[in-house]
Write a structure and sequence with these properties.
Elements lengths: L1 H24 L5 H7 L6 H20 L3 H16 L7 H9 L6 H17 L6 H19 L8 H21 L1 H6 L7 H6 L14 H27 L6 H19 L13 H17 L4
Helix pairs in contact: 1-3, 1-5, 2-12, 2-13, 3-5, 3-6, 4-6, 6-7, 7-8, 8-11, 8-12, 11-12, 12-13
Amino acid sequence: MLILIIEQRCYHAIMNEVSYSREHGAPPGSAAHYATLWMPARHQPAAWALLALRRELDEIVTRIAEPGVAHARLDWWQAELACGDQAQHPIAKALARHVLVHPGRHELLEEMIAGTQDRLRHGQLGKDRDFGLHAYRHDTAFWLILTDMEAHGGRRERDAAHALGPALAWTRVLHQLGRDTARGELLIPLETLSRHALDPSGLMHPRTNEPVRRMLAALGEETRQRLTQARTLLLEADPRTQIMPLVSLAHAEALLDAMRQDEWRLLDRRPELTPLRLLWLAWRTARKARKGRLT
């Protein structure tokens, strides 16, 4: 009887960790929810835990106004992830159970922590290569896990993650440009602005002027090309194991379409995809991936 009670408590603890991660990292109606909906069930807990951690790290930057409090919170997360099975937070427990069991994962989570530290310290990128490091820490490290969930992959999965990371990073930076600049954070490198004869002051207004729109349109086209390259590399791996990355890519392409239709007025507007649109794209992409019909 005692053994049965212990087993039941362990089962509920695991379910609570997984449920908490899912509700926090992939809430109903979100793009993350639909991106994980049709991926293999055995991989979902790891995906939800990673998504929940990424949301926690993003909220440290976007929701905590006091720098000392933000750094303290980030230090706490770093210590919590180092605890492994002894972690206290449900997300850290889920990561220990479903992600950190594979080699090399802790180093990738450390990269995500370092990316948040960079955002807290700087809030602005100078060179184009600085964006490369930003994209690696915020996106590529994340996708190096999600394109190779069981750590059995090879070069194809790594190449796909390295292409997908910058493509989705640029999509996110463009989509959240108005929110970030309103907080004083500029993730388009100064070197990129200079190539388009712009300076940071041009992005600190509540309205998108014509020179900024032209730059954003050019960056949007470059991002679309990156997404196309990432799709090619994902399809060279086994598409049936890459459903979440492929759905996320489809969502990003649709979001770029919405930004273009809104004429790149991203300082004063932020177009969103409806839950129905997200659901349709996810279902169609997952269905084609399973049947090997994606091109």
